[in-house]
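Example complex used in Figure S2.
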Amino acid sequence: MTSLPARTEKQLGLVIDLDTCVGCQACVTSCKEWNTGGHMAPLTDIRPYEDGADGVWFNRVHTYEQETKGASRTVHFPRSCLHCAEPACVTVCPTGASYKRASDGIVLVNEDTCIGCKLCSWACPYGAREYDTDVGVMKKCTLCVDRIYNQNLDEADRVPACVAACPTGARHFGDLGDPQSPVSRLVAERGGVDLMPEMGYRPTNKYLPPRERKACGVSDAPALEPAAGGLLGWVDRMLSR
Amino acid sequence: MHPALSVIFFTTATGAGYGLLALLGISAALGLVPPERWLGLVALGLALTLITGGLLSSTLHLGHPERAWRAFSQWRSSWLSREGVAAVLTYVPAGIFGIGWLVTGRVDGLVAVAALAAAAGALITLFTTGMIYASLKPVAQWHSRFTVPGYLIFAVMTGAVLLHAVLHLFGNDARGLGMFAAATIILGWAWKAATWRHNDALKPPSSANSATGLKDGTIRSIEWPHTEENFVLKEMGYRIARKHAAKLRRLVHLLAFAVPLAAVALALVAPRWLAVLSACLAVAAQAPGIVTERWLFFAEAKHAVTLYYGR
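Predicted assembly (552 residues):
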């Protein structure tokens, strides 16, 4: 059913720290590597080594320049499905292929019933869904549903592939429906935000804004105090002649 | 938004078809058109051909057309599903109306009820089509009060111009319908002009700041995640040059509204042979005009996801 669950037991999602993300693309490649053999496999590539290369990716990292008064910074910005509480991508689906799980809030696509009408991708303001032209169905981030409950993996590895791969610890996984969970506390502490809250989709994933930095700018180096005595004083007197 | 030909043909063809069916149903039930068998066969045949052709073309852009039947299941939440259900249900009264008309040569009793039901079904289907677009929040140009009335008005307008031409071809009195068609063209023209004025002044609710959660300053995209266009950009990142848009809008003004209005007006006063020609000219001009209008409806619509790409 594409009608949304009234509430979900958990709200599993990601917290992404824009302060520490260095744009290395490790989360992008590990996502592709895991998921091309995972729940939504394959993540088809079309002409990967030629002009016009195209293909399905669940996670894309943009780079922006944020210019504020007197300061600019580079911000690397990973973009993937936010597993919204009110995902219009699910309610517009005419076949019931798109659904939001009542147990953990993960938004998934049933590839056996998707007709490939692409309306869900139009309904998503975040560009999270990518159509597989080869298979003829819509694909999207599964929050690595085949890792996080996987009994064959060590407990420490039961996190999404992107989280496991991040070398700077910029990606965090947990239950954002539980206010006491580490991810919820992190969001509260760092002032985590929703993307495009005005759309009313109530995204589960949160983004931590970069920390305040000292304003940078061009200023004169302070003049050196003349050394009073000793060897340096003598050198100073010699050079000042 | 990418202007896909299958969807443009679908919305314009079914629009004209349902508009024609609605007008035919109402005017036949009220006795405004004579229940002649040939007229019924041609007019209803034209309506159902446009509807069926449009619906079939809409399945062409599906990844799995063989699963299209599944689209009837989610009518509780999905306007696309509701459109499918309404479209199929409308065939039932439309079929009874058509067969009744052709067999009995009269439109009364049960056939008249079916005619009115078919008209209602046609209008409901058009409403659901409009709602598919109007309900999409990420596209500010569509998520507006102009979208649904626009779909209904343009459908009735193109249907009226078609029925007007058919009545003239069969030598029927088309004065009443001519005046109605002229009124719908004037209404459609005003509606389109108001819609464009509204869209040109539109301030979309989202910005690069709200899209990235970076509240302060100017956000400039300096590197994309990919070097070539991906699905998101191909499907939703379509951009049209402003000078082309202005030219195409003038073409819509001319072909969809000005020429058909003049031609329908001329048919009201001209001698019979000229009236027939003029009524057909209205159809010939409006068909490419409304297709251009629909092309612009997609091409000029800006999806919120383009903010991530600095567009």
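Residues 5-309 of chain B form a domain with the Formate dehydrogenase/DMSO reductase fold fold (CATH 1.20.1630.10). Chain B touches chain A through 59 residues (CB under 8 Å).
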